């Protein structure tokens, strides 16, 4: 949207449609400006969409999130590009040129009515990223128990997904791998399946950019002492969110992956990679103390006779009503907090043995656990560095966005017109990410208002 | 290929059978070990104190002797490997201390030599596939628990040539020899090391954890690359049944002994008589 007088675009690019990016998009769009929102996943909502409940209020994450995602999805001033990546950015403030690559979903989303027939018909059960690639025990027709992924080769992220449109994972799709099947095509009532679909490129001109690229978890494969991702009943915290979630793969019933049994002894391990200079991540991931207490609490609400252990270095519950929440986990829900690190996790029979230390008694501790939940370090999401190079924006040695000034300009970068929000700057929780989303939106709006008020999109 | 060889004190005395087997087995696969013309004790532990210059003198002296003889030095003793490897790295990375150390031992050494564990050489220079081709008597039906201990794995950034949490070089060598390595979680657990002197009961319990886990996985024997581990795992079994009713003993081999047997070499000098748990009944039962 170019302004007649100075030629600046008053359209805004937001990279990442997690809770921070969505907040920024809504604030800007509601002020009358056009937003281009780009998300690499098929649907918006980010990691919050995966969560069971939020701390410290135990709100159902999806229940409070979906009104937001729906608002974003149908906002007349938000152009939403999901399953898309930024391929190129050039230019300067007021005049950035952006090239967006839309990955082929192999489904014509304009035709698709989201009836779900394709997913139902698909014979390929696969591990999906949204469920942290969990594989759960399933009794096969032969009577044998096998670990099976929780999604299908053609899938939408969740029943509440926005947009609720499926994509095909070609790595698993029988047709793409072996040249036959095409079951989804047969059952689709509107002929939306398109195996020949190609990527699409979209060019946009924007005046300002907000980077809300978010975080990932350090992979379990890199934590050799905790089983290197090879033990089915050792899972990461986001996988536990999926197991606890009423809309997750077990419908919220507490079952462990390896055999579907209800776990009676569950161990949470804090600071797995975080606060560990040897792993290259000396920083605190900030949210783990709180979400582990929350998960342990939720677990106890589901399994009353279960025992929850949390191994921690120290408890970091700085936040409004956070410490009270920890106390509640200890006192009301009888979660056992053990101050010490876990040195080793290994399989013995159908148990997962946890070797650790209780530094308050000075004694070694051994727990024969049914399920172990790891809190891996938060790391910047994939592609952050690439984006940094494109934009000439700095990241620190760990890959987090570098603020123009950590104290007084925490949402700005050294590049004029490029702003920051959310966990891509560093580990943070939901309220903080939302605040930053609004904060970055405020920064952008004050910039745009200097170039004149919002103009009618039709005049463009 | 020819490589300088540092036997170290253990392999020169109580571990002579290990040493004999190493020399014979490596020669049989084309790795010629040339013993250092002049060598001394490596110091036996890498110093952890701040002012460690004096303790580095002994290993530095060995490294100088190695430099005078070639570009790579190898050893089969894991402790010697750990000390030499770390000393070499320290010398390379600390110019000021290096100068003082050189002045003290009257040498000009910058860390030029490469220190490599013998198993590392067998894996990367000879290749386990090449070893497999030379096997005369495959160790068929032998279920072994491979045990690595700490010295070749920790600290990983300084010494490890294998995955420190899930090592596999010994397992791969055993597979090449026709044996069946079992998977168990304590391949890299500490055996108790020198506590065997001051607190043998502590070592005994640590050994028990390892052996029990190996037995649960179905192992008939343990194979290791570390002389101190071999001693602890072997010797501490003597009193084990008193403390753990029903404990069945488990022979503990050096990898080179099994390698020599599989390659069809004369194994009479491999120190069988020095094992506390007799290995011969098992070997006889397997026709080796």
Mean pLDDT of chain B: 94
Question: How far from one another are the termini of chain A?
Answer: 5 Å
Mean pLDDT of chain A: 94
Give me the Rg of chain A, rounded: 23 Å
Task: Name the CATH homologous superfamily of the largest domain in chain A.
Answer: FAD/NAD(P)-binding domain
Discrete helix count of chain B: 15
Q: N-to-C terminal Cα separation of chain B, in Å? A: 29 Å
CATH architectural grouping of the largest domain in chain A: 3-Layer(bba) Sandwich
Helix proportion of chain A: 10-25%
Q: Could you name the ranges of chain A where pLDDT drops below 50 across 5 or more consecutive residues?
A: none
What is the general shape of chain B? globular
Q: Treating each run of at least 4 consecutive H or I residues as one helix, how many helices of chain A?
A: 10
Overall CATH architecture of the largest domain in chain B: 3-Layer(aba) Sandwich
Radius of gyration of chain B: 19 Å
Domain module tally of chain A: 3
Write down the oligomeric state: heterodimer
Q: What is the β-strand count of chain A?
A: 26
Q: CATH class of the largest domain in chain A, anyone?
A: Alpha Beta
Largest interface chains and counts: A-B, 9 and 9 residues
Count the strands of chain B? Answer: 8
Beta content of chain A = 25-35%
């Amino acid at each position: 949207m170019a302004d007649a007088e100075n030629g600046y675009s008053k359209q805004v690019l937001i990279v990442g449609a997690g809770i921070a990016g969505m907040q920024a998009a809504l604030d800007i769009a509601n002020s009358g400006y056009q937003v281009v929102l780009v998300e690499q996943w098929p649907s918006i909502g980010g990691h919050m969409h995966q969560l069971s409940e939020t701390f410290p209020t135990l709100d159902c994450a999806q229940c409070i999130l979906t009104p937001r995602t729906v608002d974003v999805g149908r906002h007349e001033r938000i152009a939403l590009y999901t399953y898309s990546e930024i391929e190129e950015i050039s230019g300067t403030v007021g005049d950035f040129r952006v090239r967006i690559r839309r990955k082929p979903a192999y489904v014509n989303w304009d035709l698709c009515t989201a009836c779900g027939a394709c997913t139902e018909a698909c014979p390929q059960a696969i591990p999906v990223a949204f469920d942290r690639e969990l594989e759960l025990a399933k009794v096969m027709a032969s009577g044998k128990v096998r670990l099976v992924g929780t999604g299908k080769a053609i899938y939408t992220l969740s029943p509440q997904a926005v947009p609720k449109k499926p994509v095909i994972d070609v790595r698993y799709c029988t047709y793409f791998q072996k040249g036959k099947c095409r079951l989804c095509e047969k059952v689709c009532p509107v002929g939306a399946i398109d195996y020949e679909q190609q990527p699409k490129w979209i060019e946009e001109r924007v005046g300002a950019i907000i980077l809300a690229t978010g975080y990932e978890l350090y992979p379990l494969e890199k934590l050799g002492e905790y089983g290197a991702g090879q033990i089915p009943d050792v899972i990461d915290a986001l996988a536990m969110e999926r197991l606890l979630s009423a809309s997750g793969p077990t419908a919220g019933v507490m079952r462990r992956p390896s055999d579907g049994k209800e776990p009676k002894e569950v161990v949470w391990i804090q600071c797995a990679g975080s606060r560990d200079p040897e792993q290259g991540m000396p920083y605190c991931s900030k949210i783990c103390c709180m979400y582990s207490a929350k998960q342990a609490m939720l677990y106890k609400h589901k399994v009353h006779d279960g025992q929850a252990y949390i191994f921690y270095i120290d408890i970091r519950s700085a936040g409004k009503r956070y410490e009270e929440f920890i106390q509640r986990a200890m006192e009301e829900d009888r979660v056992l907090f053990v101050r010490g690190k876990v040195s080793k996790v290994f399989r013995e029979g159908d148990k997962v043995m946890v070797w650790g230390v209780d530094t308050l008694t000075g004694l070694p501790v051994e727990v024969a656990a049914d399920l172990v939940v790891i809190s891996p370090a938060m790391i910047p999401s994939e592609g952050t560095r690439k984006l940094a190079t494109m934009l000439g924006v700095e990241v620190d040695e760990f890959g987090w966005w570098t603020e123009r000034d950590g104290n007084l300009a925490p949402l700005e970068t050294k590049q004029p017109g490029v702003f920051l929000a959310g966990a891509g700057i560093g580990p943070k929780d939901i309220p903080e990410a939302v605040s930053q989303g609004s904060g970055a939106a405020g920064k952008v709006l004050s910039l745009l208002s200097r170039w004149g008020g919002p103009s009618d999109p039709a005049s463009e | 290929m020819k490589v300088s060889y540092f036997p170290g004190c253990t392999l020169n005395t109580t571990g002579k059978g290990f040493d004999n087997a190493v020399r014979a087995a490596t020669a049989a696969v084309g790795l010629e070990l040339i013993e250092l013309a002049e060598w001394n004790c490596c110091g036996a532990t890498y110093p952890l104190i701040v002012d460690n210059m004096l303790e580095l003198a002994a290993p530095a002296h060995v490294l100088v002797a190695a430099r005078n003889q070639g570009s790579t030095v190898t050893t089969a003793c894991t402790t010697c490997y750990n000390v030499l490897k770390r000393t070499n790295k320290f010398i390379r990375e600390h110019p000021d201390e290096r100068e003082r150390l050189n002045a003290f031992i009257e040498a000009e050494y910058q860390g030029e030599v490469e220190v490599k564990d013998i198993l590392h050489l067998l894996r990367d220079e000879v290749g386990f596939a090449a070893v497999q081709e030379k096997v005369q008597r495959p160790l068929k039906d032998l279920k072994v628990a491979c045990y690595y201990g700490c010295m070749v794995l920790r600290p990983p950034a300084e010494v490890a040539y294998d995955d420190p949490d899930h090592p596999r070089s010994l397992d791969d060598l055993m597979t090449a020899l026709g044996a069946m390595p079992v998977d168990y979680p304590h391949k890299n657990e500490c055996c108790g090391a020198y506590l065997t002197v001051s607190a043998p009961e502590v070592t005994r319990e640590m050994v028990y954890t390892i052996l029990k886990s190996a037995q649960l996985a179905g192992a008939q024997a343990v194979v290791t690359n570390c002389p101190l581990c071999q001693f602890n795992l072997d010797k501490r079994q003597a009193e084990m049944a008193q403390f753990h009713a029903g404990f069945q003993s488990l022979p503990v081999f050096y990898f080179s002994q099994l390698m020599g047997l599989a390659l069809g070499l004369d194994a009479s000098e491999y120190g069988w008589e020095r094992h506390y748990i007799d290995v011969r009944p098992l070997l006889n039962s397997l026709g080796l």
